[in-house]
Backbone:
């Protein structure tokens, strides 16, 4: 339980404490998609340093990884979008409220029914909330392969809902990415490469996850010119 408490404290350190749905924050500048990152994301210089300190290892097996939470399924990262910080609002709604402009919430609820997304991955503007998904920048399957397989389910649930690893994007681009790592996939909007790499490295470092040699090389190339 002590390990779980530490993980939850880490999770909350990068987010804003909320006292209810009405206090959900919007992004500081939702229109600046090219450099928008979750609060708590390290700058480029720090990301380069942290990347160099990550352990290089071959990816572990996906044996036992089951994201599905239907009856009888393993559900190894817990129910999606749990309210892990106990503020009465699930993490998906928090990310939508943070990343979208012109947010309109459901009456009496924290859920977002309207808003405009300036998608950082593509540079497109999306006005239908139904076409927006929340991406785990470090995919959950990749977390499993690089260390999370050895965690408790409670620790994995906390990590899966860490706001620093969550970004609102177009559903189609999220589906295109799937579980790919940076050596296999980067946002088609090249202007977001630095921000994406900073988020990715920060999450890997925070949770002491490993990287493969090709994964680290791809991140090094991306971060090299970043200011």
Residues:
């Amino acid at each position: 339980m002590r390990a779980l408490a530490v993980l939850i404290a880490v999770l909350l350190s990068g987010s804003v404490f909320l006292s209810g749905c009405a206090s959900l924050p919007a992004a500081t500048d939702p229109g600046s998609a090219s450099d928008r990152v979750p609060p708590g994301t390290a700058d480029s210089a720090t990301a380069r340093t942290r990347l160099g300190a990550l352990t290089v290892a071959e990816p572990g097996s996906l044996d036992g990884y089951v994201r599905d939470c239907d009856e009888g399924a393993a559900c190894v990262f817990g129910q999606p979008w749990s309210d892990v910080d106990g503020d009465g609002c699930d993490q998906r709604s928090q990310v939508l409220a943070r990343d979208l402009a012109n947010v309109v919430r459901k009456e009496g609820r924290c859920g977002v029914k309207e808003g405009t997304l300036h998608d950082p991955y593509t540079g497109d503007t999306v006005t239908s909330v139904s076409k927006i998904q929340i991406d785990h920048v470090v995919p959950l399957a990749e977390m499993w392969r690089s260390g999370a397989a050895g965690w408790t389910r409670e620790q994995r649930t906390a990590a899966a809902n860490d706001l620093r690893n969550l970004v609102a994007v177009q559903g189609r681009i999220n589906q295109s990415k799937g579980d790919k790592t940076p050596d296999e996939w980067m946002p088609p909007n090249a202007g977001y490469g630095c921000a994406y790499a900073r988020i990715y490295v920060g999450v890997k470092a925070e949770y002491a996850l490993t990287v493969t040699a090709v994964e680290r090389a791809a991140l090094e190339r991306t971060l090299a010119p970043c200011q």
